[in-house]
Amino acid sequence: MTLSTTHFPLRKLDRDAPTRGFLAPEMRHAAWRSSYKFHLVYRFYDADLQPLYIGLTYGGLERWDQHRKKAEWWPLAEYAAVSFYESYDAIKVAEKAAIRHEQPRFNKLHRRGPANASLHLRGPAEDAAAVLFRDADTEFINELAQLLTQPERFPQPAPPPPARFADEAPTTERRTA
Fold first, then answer.
1. Which of 12, 38, 57, 76 has the most crowded Cβ, counting Cβ within 10 A?
2. Looking at residue 48, what is its pLDDT?
3. Would you tell me how many other CB atoms lie within 10 Å of the CB of residue 91?
């Protein structure tokens, strides 16, 4: 049996206490001991409950200790919330969604979405929309939707004349400037 998705409440952080001490209530969860590994997303907030940093860890608590020693935001952290997930894949998805939704001040990844997205332009348009909603900023999606209602803004190049055999009469193009 593994630990199912469980969200624990936001609570005051003692920045000097050992990480294991902070997670003691979570570690007493009924499924904790039977869980081979734990996969968690953690979120740190400042005194005004503004998000500072969201991260993930799996199988160990060392990541929090690294933040304690090196993160410039650690002295600002006053509150933390922890969510456990079933798998590494689940925490990757949850972390990305949390960062994109909450926009923590010190996260660098996932803040603006990827610079590029691979869209399949043949097949269901719904699939392309799903990729955009998953990876793109809301402002970008709104602007793109507006532009897609204005095809006249994006004239397409004229195709070359039809292909002909060499012994057929050539066609001449008249270009207007």
1. 38
2. 96
3. 24
